[in-house]
Amino acid sequence: MSAAVREIDTPRGPARVTRHPATSGAPRGLLLLGHGAGGGVEAPDLVVATGAATAAGFDVGLVEQPYRVAGRRAPAPAGHLDEAWRAVAEAVRGELPLVQGGRSSGARVACRTAPATGAVAVLCLAFPLHPPGKPERTRLPELAGAGVPALVVQGRSDRFGIPDDGPGRRVVLLDGDHGLKKDPAGLAGAVRDWLAGLPV
To answer: Which residues form a coiled coil (predicted)?
Structure first.
C-alpha cells in the first residue's frame, strides 16, 4: 500500500501528514515523526526511521509543520510548533497506541507535547541537547519531561551535544554528526529493535 497524504487544519495553519502503512499485518501502533527546524520530512534519518518502523509493524506519519507547508524555512516559535503538533496528533491518532518523535527540533516538540498527546514513548533523532558551544544552555529538562520511555539516537560528533542515559531513556551513539547520515544500518537497527520491545 502506498503512502497517503493528508492536510490537517491546526490553530497555526494547515499541517501535512504523509502516512506510510506497516508493511505486514495490522499495525501495532502509530509513530508520528517531525522534521528539523530548517529541513523537511525527506531528511535521510527520517527516511531510514520510517522504513525501520513500518518493518517493525508501525504505521508512520511524517508531519510537516504549518510554516513548512506555507513555504517558509524559518521555524515558528516553540509554542506555535507545539500547538500545531497537538492538533495533528489529535486528528490522526485513532485507536492505535501513539509513539511520537522526530529529528532535532522535531524531537524537542515530541518531548514537550508527549504528556498532552498521551504518547506512550518518544523517539529522538539527533536531539539538540544545547546550542553549539553553549553546554550551559541545556535542554535536558525537555527530554526528561516527556515522562515516557525514550530512545535517543545521536552521532558521536554531534556539535549540539550528547545526552546521557537516564530513567526510561536509552541513548544509542552512532558514527557521524548531527545529520545521522553515516550509519543508516545502525540507525535502522536501533529504531527497529527499540520499537519491537515496546509493550504496545
So the answer is: none
4-197 has which CATH code? Answer: 3.40.50.1820
pLDDT at 25: 87
Closest CA to 125 of 79, 98, 160: 160
The pLDDT tens digits for 2-47 are 899 999 999 999 999 999 999 988 999 999 999 999 899 999 999 9
> How crowded is residue 32: how many other Cβ atoms within 10 Å of its Cβ?
27
Q: Which grid coordinates are listed for 163?
A: 545526552
CA distance 15 to 172: 30
- The reported pLDDT for the residue numbered 24 is 85
User: Which triple of cell numbers denotes residue 107?
Assistant: 524531537
**126 Cβ contact partners less than 8 Å away, ≥ 6 residues apart:** 36, 45, 103, 104, 107, 153, 154, 155, 158, 160, 178, 179, 180
Q: How far is CA 27 from each of CA 8, 88, 173, rounded to the nearest angstrom?
A: 22, 19, 28
What separation, in Å, do the N-terminal and C-terminal C-alpha atoms of the chain show?
23
